[in-house]
Amino acid sequence: MSSGLWSRPTVVPLLPGPDEAREWAERELADPVYRAAEPTAFDRLARAVRDAIEALFTAPVSGDWGPWAFVVLAVLVVAAIVTGVLIWGRPRPLTRARPPALALFDHDDARSADQLRADAEAAAERREWDDAVVLRFRAFARGLIERGIVDPPPGATARAFSRSVGETLPALAAPAADGAGAFDDVRYLGRAGTAETYALVTRLDEAAMASRMAATDTRAGNR
């Protein structure tokens, strides 16, 4: 046989031209795999900070460079903090928001002082003296709490509240004690409320509002 029949064919390598090679390279680099492997801006910044710190502590320290090393380190720390704030946001201040006091003498009631007064007056017009007395005393207490004059602890009783009122507004010590007694009589002892009892609690509430206005006027006059 002729050796030419069994000789391997010559393989001609495929050599693209310059334009075709550039097109192939661009197509390959456009693969998302390469894009995902690229470092992010934060990675580059973190690497730069790390390299700077390593260079700072590995470089020979001379007499002139020593003081500046701490300055550079402080600048790098500040830059890292600013970077963290820009990326993760400013930390929220730790403020303790106090929940509004809704409970008044073993009863949860979200009504304001004005609403309680209006409901008390409506009950009085219907001659429902029990409700009128209870609501008006709650309005008295709510008004002082809303104005920041008295700050009762959770679960405070009407008599404990009246003692706090006497400490803050001494002129109301006795009327507040009488009002708390009337509240307890109607609320807990089952004694019927009367027009006289309602008038007593109403005068207490009005005196508390007047005392607050007098205190405000006094502070305004001292300015």
**pLDDT < 50 stretches:** 1-7, 93-101, 215-223
Order of helices and strands: HHHHHHHHHH
Main sheet characteristics: none
**How helical, in percent, are the residues?**
55-70%
Count the helices. How many? 10
Strand content: under 5%
Tally of extended strands? 0
- End-to-end distance, in Å? 125 Å
Transmembrane segments: 65-88
Protein name: DUF4129 domain-containing protein
Domain Protein-glutamine gamma-glutamyltransferase-like C-terminal: 136-205
Keywords: Membrane, Transmembrane, Transmembrane helix
3D architecture notes:
The protein has ten helices and no strands. Residues 1-7, 93-101 and 215-223 have low confidence and may be disordered. The protein has helices spanning 3-6, 18-29, 32-37, 41-58, 65-88, 113-125, 129-146, 158-168, 173-187, 195-222.
Give the tags:
223 residues, mainly alpha, 67% helix, membrane
Write the layout of secondary structure elements.
Blueprint: H1 3-6, H2 18-29, H3 32-37, H4 41-58, H5 65-88, H6 113-125, H7 129-146, H8 158-168, H9 173-187, H10 195-222
Helix pairs in contact: 4-5, 6-7, 7-9, 7-10, 8-9, 9-10
In short:
The protein has helices spanning 3-6, 18-29, 32-37, 41-58, 65-88, 113-125, 129-146, 158-168, 173-187, 195-222. With 223 residues, it is mainly α.
